[in-house]
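Deviations from the work plan: none for this task. Representative record:
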Amino acid sequence: MDIDDILADVSTAAEPQESRDLQQLTRAWVAERVAPEVLPWPAGLMDRIEGRIRRQIELVEEQTGNMDPKANFRLIVIQTELERFKFLVRSFLRARIAKIDKYAQHYLSLAAQQPTLLAPTELQYLQAHIALLSRHYSTSFLSAFPPSLQRLDDTAGGISMVDGPDLDTVVFCRVLRDVGTVRVEGTDVEMNMRRGDVWVVRWGSIRNAVVERGDIELI
Amino acid sequence: MYGELGNKLVQHAKRTQSLAHLPPYQTEIVRALTREVRDLDKDVAALLEPFQGSFNPSADPSTACALLVNHLCMRRNKRCLLAYHRVRADKLEEMCWAGVDVLERQQQQQQQEQSVAGRPRVEGALGGDVGNESSLSPEEEEYVRQYGDLLAAYKGQWTDIDLTGSLEPPRDLFIDVRVLRDAGEIQTEYGAINLTKNSQFYVRQGDVERLIAQGYLQRLG
């Protein structure tokens, strides 16, 4: 449990954990689809969701034989909800994998510095994928190259071969708690972000407010 | 010379991006490019040889320029090759995610080509290697196989979610489908359904998603 969860506890103690999880999952899903870079893996949230999906599937399987129309109707409601949850998780994971694949080398080095950025399974996938790709390059043509040119993470000539996400991409966001003055780096633009505002800003300038403090959500 | 082939390869890659299928692998160009890089490297070594490792660029600007051009060309060629292979690998991965069996399709294509190409061969005029032309290089076939395994392993950790499922938000639990091709019998929670051609069913979407993707069923409404 980190500071975000504690804060969330204070402000929304009245709501049950389940609906808060759904809200968080939806928020994480939207953010992941909009943000140019991969966001830290919400381990606790995903564990809870995964467990709940499994329990619901078991419940559905148990009740299937039941011919009572009332129970049957409830089952349909549960299954519909289940499908929606599965869709959210699926889309969330796919959005992450797409970004991880695109900037594979970049995230490999980043994951070493920030162990909580990727889920263990994602890291495994990333490592295996990079190994596959470099073997593919190597057997296709790279092994015939002079040794000095065989590396895949060269930075010679001032150009790095490793491509990273563009943090200056513009995102739409909504302010959840008063943030105060935000500066956009490299310009003299200043914004006063108040609760309920909707802004179009560079991702880099609000990144911390979204990822670390949760004051802003992406839309 | 000096990057012309690389340009050609990049054009191929660019074209590949907007195609639905994968055009044949340009073995010749790739080979020629690798050869060019090796030749350039030899040139560099030959240029540097008389200096015995103590080359001073400002003392001999013309040699320095030649070296720079050679170096840049080698790097550019490498970049072109990487880009070309990456575009194709991406395409193959996309197919893996979409559940297309790339290798099987390859074989089918080859067989078709062979049966077409088989006839003139009997008459004697044409060479035999027409039918063996595959649009994947052997390395790529290997890559697809391994990536398929990797994807299956990753998917296996999320069995409940079905990662390669539809990315359209679900609206209805049950949908109307029409059977386009005989798909045999499938098991659902409500018993077995026999999918014969031209029949119509009202079934749970999750049960038939795969069959829709494979073209056995068509979604109605």
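Chain A has two domains: 13-144, 166-219.
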